[in-house]
TrEMBL record:
This is Stage V sporulation protein AE. It comes from the Bacteria. The chain crosses the membrane at residues 6-24, 31-51, 93-112. Keywords: Membrane, Transmembrane, Transmembrane helix. The keyword Transmembrane applies. It holds the Pfam family SpoVAC_SpoVAEB. The lineage of its organism: Bacteria, Bacillati, Bacillota, Tissierellia, Tissierellales.
Length: 118
């Protein structure tokens, strides 16, 4: 049942993105930043936590989940280290994901010989 919940939540996030692409003049970059910002704001307000509890990976894997992780890290850092922790906590919380993206991106670039579009 967890897989179904993750599929539903992740699918709804994707549907929202596709609707925005189809019906607005927003570029994919604008939508990406909007989803990240929405994840931070909803996480800071405590509204994204129930979505994560229900949808699991369906809510944490998309870019809005990254924003949620940043906000939770900043809140936790502010609680333990004060104002400086509010700035560093998000990076500490999301550091593993950032490192994985850099590592896997590098490995894929080595394996597949990327080319620019003409």
């Amino acid at each position: 049942m967890d897989y179904v919940k993750a599929f539903i939540v992740g699918g709804l996030i994707c549907v929202i993105g596709q609707i925005l692409l189809d019906n607005t003049k927003l570029t994919p970059a604008h939508i990406l930043v909007s989803f990240l910002t929405a994840g931070v704001v909803l996480g800071g307000l405590g509204l994204y936590t129930p979505i994560v509890e229900f949808g699991g990976a369906g809510a944490t894997v998309p870019i809005s989940g990254f924003g949620y992780a940043l906000s939770q890290g900043a809140i936790e850092g502010a609680g333990t280290k004060g104002l400086l922790g509010a700035f560093t906590g998000g990076i500490e919380a999301a550091g593993g994901g950032i490192a994985a993206v850099i590592l896997f991106g590098y490995v894929v670039a080595l394996v597949f010989n990327p080319k620019t579009k003409d």
